[in-house]
């Protein structure tokens, strides 16, 4: 009942009475305060009746907590988007990941699921096979875990970027990169 009284008091304030949607017929004839008030009260009455009949009362939507942001020792910031209890790979292990790489403006620059590509990337951890930030991030993950990682330029392509000889760059020098990463598998290397 208290919520209904608050709603009515908000609807009956002069600012609410001044607004009417554009309708050529009404605009030509002119709208009085009485007509506007009648429309508002009619709407409130119908809405209240419908809620009573249905037995529902509007409840506020639950607030979603902001994700926890973690930092790796070298400075990659990340949020876990899917938890897992799988094993953590060790340095030198082979790992299989799926990823999407974004520039800071949201543009995708690479993805394992892009047309003509395999659905995963296989590399040996801590051997320089991938950019340092991706290597470090995957080394912190558990198999089955998904993260979104923000990789600073020093752990990505640094001051060089990824540029063609003509100066056109896919990844500009000094770019911060964002990766969505899923660690699918890990295995020890053969002897």
Automatic annotation (TrEMBL):
Please verify whether the record's keywords include Isomerase. yes
| PPIase FKBP-type domain: residues covered | 92-187
Query: Keywords on this record?
Result: Isomerase, Rotamase, Signal
A Gene Ontology MF term for this entry?
A: peptidyl-prolyl cis-trans isomerase activity
Q: Which SUPFAM superfamilies match?
A: FKBP-like
| Substrates-to-products reaction catalysed | [protein]-peptidylproline (omega=180) = [protein]-peptidylproline (omega=0)
Q: What is its EC number?
A: 5.2.1.8
- Span of the signal peptide: 1-18
Output the InterPro entries linked to this UniProt entry. Answer: PPIase_dom_sf (IPR046357), PPIase_FKBP_dom (IPR001179)
Q: Does this entry carry the keyword Hydrolase?
A: no
The protein's name is peptidylprolyl isomerase
Q: Which organism is it from?
A: Corethron hystrix
Q: What is the lineage of its organism?
A: Eukaryota, Sar, Stramenopiles, Ochrophyta, Bacillariophyta
């Amino acid at each position: 009942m208290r919520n209904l009284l608050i709603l009515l008091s908000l609807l009956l304030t002069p600012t609410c009475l001044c607004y009417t949607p554009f309708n050529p017929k009404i605009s030509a004839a002119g709208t009085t305060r009485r007509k506007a008030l009648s429309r508002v009260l009619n709407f409130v009455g119908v809405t209240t009746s419908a809620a009573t009949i249905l037995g529902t009362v509007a409840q506020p939507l639950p607030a979603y907590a902001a994700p926890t942001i973690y930092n790796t020792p070298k400075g990659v910031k990340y949020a876990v988007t899917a938890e897992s209890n799988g094993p953590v790979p060790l340095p030198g292990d082979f790992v299989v990941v799926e990823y999407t790489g974004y520039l800071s403006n949201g543009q995708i620059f690479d993805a394992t699921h892009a047309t003509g590509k395999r659905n995963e990337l296989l590399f040996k951890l801590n051997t320089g096979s991938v950019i340092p930030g991706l290597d470090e991030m995957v080394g912190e993950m558990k198999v089955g875990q998904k993260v979104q990682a923000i990789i600073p330029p020093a752990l990505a392509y640094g001051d060089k970027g990824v540029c063609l000889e003509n100066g056109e760059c896919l990844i500009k020098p000094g770019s911060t990169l964002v990766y969505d990463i899923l660690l699918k598998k890990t295995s020890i290397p053969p002897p």
